[in-house]
C-alpha cells in the first residue's frame, strides 16, 4: 500500500507531506463533451442528451460507435502525410478516449505504424511544433526535491503502469531531450489497445535532464530545459528520487517500463532497479523476447533444438546483447547445459569486429559474458566463414550491411539459415527481404524489424514476419498487473516468447512467416498475460492471492473494452 494513504485509502497530510485538494464532480453539458473519458460525441442517446444537459449542444443525428469509427478512419485515410494522421489520432485521444481505442483496436495493422514506430518517432522530432497538450507528466531538473509533488498532481489515483523516458536515445533518432514524450504516450496507448490495460491506470512520464542536441537547444519552439544533459551523481540522484517517489505515490506494485534511455544508462538502471522495483526495459527485454519467439517458431523448419544453433549478432547494443542473453537463458532452461556454455553458442560483432576475450579490457560490462576465446576478426564475412553461425541477427543500425557476400556465406552454413534484419526504420534494415531470399536461393528464413512486402521467389510467395515488440510488452504488462507481481523475472520474457511462438501456424510457416498475423494480437496478449502471471505465481512474485484458477479467463475478461457505457 502507498505510504501516503491511510487505512481508509485517503491521503494523509503531514507538515512535510502536502496533500493535493482533488475534487470529484459529475460532468454534464459542455463539460461532459469536453471530458475525453466520458465524451461520446454524436453517440449520446436522446435520453442521455436530456438527462445530461446536452440538448442543443449536438446536431440531431444519433450515431452508433461503429459509424463513428468509420468516419474517423475515412478522415484519417484522407491525409496524405503520416504525421497528419498521427495528429488526427492524438486529437481524437484528447477528445474521445473510447472511440480512439476502438478505432485503434479495429484497425491495428493499419494504424500501428502511425501511433508506434516509425511515425511516432517523426512526431517526437516535431513535438515542439505540434505540442498542445501534455498527455503525461513532465518532470524536470527544476522539480528536484519535489518529484513526489509532480506525481501527486496527476489526476488519476489508481496508476498501475508508468512508461518513462529521459529522451536520451529515441528510436534511431538520438537525443531528443524533452521531446521524447511521444514514445511513452504511444507505448501506453498500446498497453491499452493491445494488452487491455485500462487507460486511467497508465501514466506516461518524460524526465527532462537537459539535452545535448544543439539543434533543439537553438530551436525557439523547443519545449524542454535549455541546458546540456546532467550526468554522473547528479543524474543518478535525480533518477533515484524519481524511483523512490513512484513507490511513495503508487505503492510497491507500480510497474515502471524504462524506454529509450541511452545505452549505458538503460543497462545500469535495469540492473539496479530490477532488484527493488517492478521494472523492465522494452528495448532490451521486449526485443529479446520477440526475437526469441521468431527463432523458436522457425525450429520446425530448421530442425533440431535451439541448442543446436549457433548465433551471431551484428550490432551489440541494447537489442543485440539483450537477445543474446535471453537466447542463452532459453537454451539453459531446456538443455542440460550451463548458462556459460549456452552463451558460448552466441557471438557478438560490434564496430570493432568480433567481441573476443582479447578485447575484454575495453568492453562494456554487458558485452563481457559474450567475449569468447577466439582470434580477433574484423570483417563480418570472415567471421561467418570461421564461426559458421546458423542464425544471423542484425541490430547494428547499419542499412545494407548484410551484403550478397554475407548472405551467401550464411547459406553455406545451414540448409535453412535464420536471418533477421531488425534495425529500424526500413532504410536501416541490414538487408531487404528480397535480397535475403535472392542470395540464399530461397532457403533462408527471414524476419525484419520494419514491415516488408511479401516476396515471390522461384514461384513461391513468402510473407515477411515483423519482430515487433508490441507482440510482447502489452501482454507482459497486463500479466504483471493481474497477478500483482512485485518483480519482473527473465522467466516471464521466456514464457512470453514461447507463448508467441505457439501462435505461428503450419500455414504461416509454409509462407516462411515467423510471426502470427496482427489482427489476432489481443488474443495473443491475453495468452501472454496469463503465461506471465502464471510465472509470477510459480516464482513467488505474485501478490494477488489466492491464485485465480483460470488465469487466461481472468486475463481475457479483465481487458479494457472501448465500447461506450450508458449513462444514467
Ligand atoms: P544501440 O545503439 O544500443 O546498439 C547498436 C549497436 O550496433 C552498437 O553496439 C554499435 O556498436 C553497433 N554498430 C554500429 N555500427 C556498427 C557497424 N558498422 N558494425 C558493427 N556493429 C555496429 O541500439 P539498439 O537499441 O541495440 O538498436 C539497434 C537497432 O535495432 C536499431 O536500429 C533499432 O531500431 C533496432 N531495434 C529493433 C527492434 C525490433 O525489431 N523489434 C527492437 C529494438 C531495436
From TrEMBL:
Pfam families hit by this protein: malic, Malic_M
Cofactor: Mn(2+)
Keyword Transmembrane helix belongs to the record: no
Keyword entries, A-Z: Metal-binding, Oxidoreductase
Malic enzyme NAD-binding domain sequence ranges: 284-537
Entry-linked SMART domains: malic, Malic_M
Coiled-coil ranges from the UniProt annotation: none
Domain spans labelled Malic enzyme N-terminal: 93-274
Family, similarity comment: Belongs to the malic enzymes family.
Xref: NCBIfam families: PRK13529.1 (NF010052)
Family annotation (PANTHER family): MALIC ENZYME-RELATED, NADP-DEPENDENT MALIC ENZYME 3
The protein's name: Malic enzyme
